[in-house]
Design goal:
mainly alpha; iron
Length: about 120
């Protein structure tokens, strides 16, 4: 017997089920589920570059906010950045980012870490 679900819920359930199956089988999760630093760069340049220096080719910002490189250098856990962006500091605007957008920004921000 098939269960009837709205298409959007069915899609999310299928994706979640696939990810769970891949994890249980020990197979790597496909890149579609991974954070995308390139997308994070686009979001950062749109939302963050006014206050933060977000890229090596950006020389100034409008505030004294730390650069992405300095944030990456002192960050010990990408998860702490994700939590921070989900509930930003009062001086930061409420950007209402999705969890995927937050993951993408954090991936891009961490790519700024110097070796």
């Amino acid at each position: 017997m098939l269960v009837s679900m709205p298409p959007s819920r069915l899609g999310r359930s299928a994706v979640a089920g696939f990810a769970l199956l891949m994890a249980v089988c020990g197979a790597p999760i496909p890149p579609a589920f991974a954070a995308d630093a390139a997308k994070g760069e686009i979001i950062a340049k749109r939302w963050c570059a006014t206050c933060h220096v977000t890229a090596p080719d950006q020389t100034t910002s409008n505030t004294e906010a730390p650069s992405f490189a300095s944030i990456a250098a002192r960050t010990t856990s990408p998860n702490s950045l994700k939590a921070f962006l989900a509930d930003p500091h009062p001086r930061m605007p409420n950007m209402s980012l999705t969890t995927d957008e937050i993951a993408d920004i954090v991936a891009y921000l961490m790519s700024q870490r110097q070796p």
